[in-house]
Amino acid sequence: MDSLSLKPDKSPIAPAPPPPTISPEAPRFPPPRLQQDQIPSSSIKYPTMLSPANGVKTGSSVPHLSTPPAPPVFTSPVQPAAVPFRTSPATPQPIALSSASSLPTSSPPYFSNGSMELQQQLSSSIEEPVPGGKSPCVLFSAHKVLKHKKQANVPSLGFGVLVSPGRETSPGPQVIQRDPHRCHDCGAYSNLHSNILIGSGQWQCVICGNLNGSEGEYIALSKEELCNFPELSSPLVDFIQTGNKRPSFVSVTDSRTSAPVVLVIDECLDEPHLQHLQSSLHAFVDSLPTTRRIGVILYGRTVSVYDFSEESVASADVIPGGSSPSQETLKALIYGTGIYLSPMHASKEVAHLIFSSLRPYKLNVPEASRDRCLGTAVEVALAIIQGPSADFSRGVVKRPGVNSRIIVCAGGPNTYGPGSVPYSYTHPNYPHKEKSALKWMEHLGRKAHQQNTVIDILCAGTCPVRVPVLQPLAKASGGTFVLHDDFGEAFGINLQRASARAAGSHGLLEIRCSDDIIITQVVGPGEEAHIDTHETFKNDISLCIQMLSVEETQCFSISMENKHDIKSDFVFFQFAIKYTNVYQADITRVITIRLPTVDSIPEYLQSVEDGVAAVLIAKRTLLGAKSYSDVIDMCTTIDERVKDIALKFSSLVPKSKFHRFPKEISLLPELLFHLRRGPLLGNIVGHEDERSVLRNLFLNASFDLALRMVAPRCLMHREGGTFEELAAYDLVMQSDTAVVLDHGTDVFIWLGAELAADEARSAAALAACRTLAEEVTELRFPAPRILAFKEGSSQARYFVSRLIPAHKDPPYEQEARFPQLRTLTTEQRTKLKSSFIHFDDPSFCEWMRSLKVMPPEPI
Description:
The chain is α/β, with parallel strands linked by helices and 859 residues long. 27% of the residues lie in helices and 19% in strands. The longest helix is centred in the C-terminal third of the chain and has 22 residues, at 628-649. The radius of gyration is 28 Å and the shape is globular. The two termini are 31 Å apart. Keywords: Cytoplasm, Cytoplasmic vesicle, Endoplasmic reticulum, ER-Golgi transport, Membrane, Metal-binding, Protein transport, Transport, Zinc. GO terms for molecular function: GTPase activator activity; zinc ion binding. Residues 1-129 are annotated as: Disordered. It is found in: Cytoplasmic vesicle, COPII-coated vesicle membrane; Endoplasmic reticulum membrane.
């Protein structure tokens, strides 16, 4: 969910408590474009939300990495069924919404040496309360867990966690430059919740209860001394190992900035598109560090590989594009005299010459019918990145010492050579050729991943690029797929942000839980990892996910259930993220969370994080929304969820057939209403390719971006350049104001007609809104498109369609949910009321009542 590349292999993960299923969805992005002038960022900072992304699903007690599930049913329980693990989305599988298969209750913790002194000699870190679920990399949907299985496993609300393996933390994590202590039985790591015998240095595992030695390291005179060990005092620690373990090791100072980036550029562009592309490319080159190595490849009917050894002219070696290059061709290219990757300090002027020499497409052929050998071009790019280290005679490929990146700038579909599709959908053999192209592109993406190379595909223009064919190439390599309206400013921003992203490699996510908890679904940018650790840890039943890359913007959405009624006062969750960072250091990040268990439903609901719960529900829902008909089913699913939550967790209104919605989670239904009518499930987005790209981006998105994509953030400009955050209701459209609406992949600036008529005030408000829009999206990838327009213009429909039509509600309800109305005069309110046009979309309150549920009181 941004997307998992899954292997065709359908075997379950582990035999013991079955592993969950991971659902693959490649990351794709809606048109990020900035249609107003770039604005210098202001010094004022605005708060942003946190971040996560995709899903794993198991229908049985054994989790499997699988395909998207069908819509949940909330009436009678369904017997869980094992879901196969697939490489690409297939027919939605039934989702298990009832209790998981019953497994034997685990026995109480035991002590392998028979000693009972452990109970009295606990580390002080165990007795000090630590906020549960508060690590910035790990966000739980609730900070408490219900003890009773039947109550906890209500599928309409669910319980889960969002894990962002690459997220930067502030302050940074505790760093430990030694090997961690691990449980000999299950492989879990020692942590701040471990019971310590200070006399012997032994520690008890929180996951399986086994007693382990520490080679005398944890022997201490007092419990306070143990706090000097970072892993025993902090919920998040990084174990770091550095050293020259790879044949082509690059020094720490050079590895990140010297990593090569190869631009693979479509040369079949018409003049207007080419002019915008050239501007973006020139700015891109100027933004690169001087040590960054760059390569430039053009593709059309042939592949042109530009040579940087010529200082005053754009010179290229040309390779036919109709088939994959032979080993002899690649060998002649790589061992020749040309320089195809060169550091910026030596090649900036040559790069500018190359981009200036590009010419528009001259033949009179429609855009969609032009020969483009994108697949061959990417193969050549991988070969020049690999360089002479590749042994072509034996087919041996060595991993480069740094993470490389290929950025494809595409203006149309791949129609020539390997991985291509026919020009027209009407071709009699199109389905077969598309299927073959999908497999070939995925294979090429996996090959790139094996070479530590990430492929980002940035598309622009009006020509359909055949999203389903190109997307597996980006997904399998751990890259992103982004759609733009043109090659202008937003494209240029994403080009720069794509190349600047830090990507770790060889990522592995291990998840361990108390025996009371079972993982039922995982959504995210990874695939099932087949790792046998039983020789080292005889009872390791962790769920292992291979991450395609490790980046800050990625997230995994993990759904969980109670395996049985919980008798203990706490449950434990441990997440171990292993990867090689951009400086070639091996990192093991260990995050351990302890959550209390409760019997009381109100107490549990009070601990629910509405935003996290909404994102988890949204990702599970979007996983099944593959087609337009699926989208309709998913909207019905959301309705059923809201009704079921009210039915299971609240009561009837006296003398009424309406159920109350739990007041403890009063924000949740409005978030789900935004999801239901917004671009992810509503009819705002027209073309199915755009919806597909948006959906795949969302499934892998961090919590911050995912929450914004579900529900927009609305900020009204005030005199003096300040902003007031308001509910995203159409009541915000007051004619004398300016409003910024951040919807994740789009940011809209709306100027009221009365304000727009005053040129000076309008200019000041617009400048402030632009500055705000750029600041809140400064680090977002992909960069959103930013649109500014006036009240009543044709583009204003983008803005209006994303606001809840609260003008249909009675005045008392409007004031309760939108208190800012009370500051308006009678004349202003009358004017606002008369500005609305009637249409059939229900307001939030009307929708809730249509479900026989009373809208919750606003906070």
